[in-house]
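Posting this for the archive.
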Amino acid sequence: MSGTDMGVAAARDTADPSGGERLRRWRMVLGGGEADGTGCALTGRDAAMDAALGALYGGGGEAGSRRTSGARSAGLGGSAPNVARWLGDIRTYFPSSVVQVMQRDAIERLGLAALLLEPEMLEAVEPDVHLVGTLLSLNKAMPETTKETARAVVRKVVEQLEKRLANRTRATLTGALDRSARISRPRHHDIDWNRTIQANLKNYLPEYRTVVPERLIGYGRAARSVKKEVILCIDQSGSMAASVVYASVFGAVLASMRSIATRLVVFDTAIVDLTDQLDDPVDVLFGTQLGGGTDINRALAYCQSKITRPADTVVVLISDLYEGGIRNEMLKRVAAMKGAGVEFVTLLALSDEGAPAYDREHAAALAALGAPAFACTPDLFPEVMAAALEKRPLPIP
């Protein structure tokens, strides 16, 4: 029984909680056949939905076939017309969130990635972060006739992510930069009361139950000049596809802030500096090459060579930490950067899926150096960056 089948059936709206409706739902979940025990035949829209599910989660036959009873036995095969018709069917019958899951399953389970090289196929799919990752992995094999369509799909997803994340990121980091510039003669609305009280506890008057603030500490206002430097160092191995997409969007957002100098580096066993393309995250994404090996030590060596103001620099390593290079040298490099005053952040993933498989030994070694490794959602990333910029403890989930 497919988890997607169950989710689709459970999410189906109905105003009739009768026994017949329950049987219909169980029939949708179980997929039909004598063994399901429901004795329920599907017709009309229900039969069409069941056929769309059977094409992916059944056992063979023609996609998009219409049945009123019996077990699911359809399949997508290798036919582009069949797949295109099926993509249209699932967009008709299911909500976007379910469509994206079914597309991902079709690509992974039925080996349909190659069909995405055809423009008419790309026009039929529902764009999402995982589809972008698949397209980027196919980038080098993509014919010229498909590239413009692929870029349009990627741009649509990037614009959706920027709309969701950009304003909050800028607001959060601007506040962090302002707070990092402390002043001793603040205006009233710029007073940092927590720090002011801490600094004046010796002036507590018990009879009045109050603190006399002889010294005020306040938030400064960040000037237009660069205050901090951020280096995003991104593992572009195949398992990090979603992280690469999100990190590229965040890199573009950070690069748009005058007070932060942003560098974006992607790596496998080679290193590519994509900083010059940060004004367009789509160009950044098509500059990556998902897959291949991993040499974290070499990538960190490159990043280290670009640091000019260690105390004002944040390095964000986004990787599952499966190191193909020299482990001890990698750890020594992290220790050296932290010793020089660099804020070092290790993210096992930057995505909504949580932590992937990762090298636990390396993660523990980095934690021992004061650089704990953890997975981070895109919504939490601005808070993580704000904490790093202010040199305070990271909000580890």
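The first strand starts at residue 182 and ends at 183. The chain has a mean pLDDT of 80.
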